[in-house]
Amino acid sequence: MALFFTSDTHFGDPRALRFDHRPFSDLDAHDAALIERWNAAVSPSDTVWHLGDFALGPPPERVEQIFAALNGEKHLISGNNDGPTTLAIPGWTSVSSYAELVEDDTMLVLCHYAFRTWNGMGRGSINLHGHSHGALRPAPKQYDVGVDVWDFRPVTLAQIRARRRRAVAPAS
User: pTM of this prediction?
Assistant: First the structure.
């Protein structure tokens, strides 16, 4: 069982194609690709923390259909585009606007939004967030887990840390 993080899937939201310049021909192709990439990374026994903006626009039946097609136990940290339809999906293990948890001996502070300061940041905790769609310059101990940053799929803490290490490794 692995632990994954993601955000800003924007299932059913046509704005994701326009504003975020996502490389899909239409909204159906977008949603199908995100479901496929999610399930290629996440097994049914894994856990996923979705840090907001799950879906906006489709009717409740379609949102529930998309949700049911995704592998894993799913938690939601609500975002600014998560309306009543998303919040009412009966399969969420939890729904909140903020969470703290420990993974690999590291405290994680989860929110849809990036913080300037957060609980435990001076003691090694890290902030995982979404909302910015990769537009924020990375800050120490802070990571954007949005699909726009991660090839439209959920990621593990180990993957997040490995990318940051590669990005700051000295040139040889």
Answer: 0.94
